[in-house]
Amino acid sequence: MASTSDIRNGLCIKYNHDIYKIIEFLHVKPGKGPAFVRTKLKSLTNGKVLDNTFSAGHKIDVVRVETHTFQYLYAEGQDFHFMNNETFEQISLNRDVLDAPDLLKEGENVMIQINTETDLPLSVDMAASVILEVTYTEPGVKGNTATNATKPATVETGASVNVPLFINEGDKIKIDTASGKYMERV
Fold first, then answer.
1. DSSP code for 107
2. Cα 147 → chain centroid
3. What are the DSSP E strand ranges found in 44-108?
4. Quick one: pLDDT at residue 138?
5. What is d(CA 59, CA 46) in angstroms, rounded to the nearest whole number?
6. Distance of CA 79 to CAs 92, 95, 133, 145, 167, Å?
7. Could you tell me which of 61, 69, 57, 56 has the C-alpha nearest to residue 41?
8. pLDDT of residue 5
9. Which portions of the chain are predicted below pLDDT 70?
10. Which of 61, 76, 67 minimizes the C-alpha distance to 13?
11. Which pathway does the database say it acts in (predicted)?
12. Bridge partners, residue 40, by sequence
């Protein structure tokens, strides 16, 4: 058992008969009344996000997890196959477990958190950004850098991303995996 002072981003806890991962937290000490911790929790079983407030000193049940590096191999329908880089064991995970499955490129390394009690994978953490090549977009026009206008572009994984007008086919772009938005041209 731990208390609210142990809360941090990425911590996995048992709450309401489910396992949640803490995405955000904020310790609040109002001028009047007791302190509390405002959290945003993401369910690792169904992906739902909920806001919850814990009073200061509240006991929370922490789930022990191990983090391993896995390499993404291929997708087969709704299943994504990964290989452990240390033991070379392969596992398959459903598409719903992944935060941004459309941005996952074959051969890319991800961090998978595994529950030590049940040996079941809990969550998949991708890199903060990925670099992908644009496979299709409307041609860019010289001088279209002054406005904030965007156009849709398809990247090598099949995902569609809104990009600035000056991006052309064959360009490599950096995409934020959390939001799925264009960051910069590489």
1. T
2. 30
3. 49-55, 59-62, 65-76, 79-84, 90-94
4. 86
5. 24
6. 6, 6, 24, 40, 32
7. 61
8. 84
9. 141-146
10. 61
11. Protein biosynthesis; polypeptide chain elongation
12. 24, 51
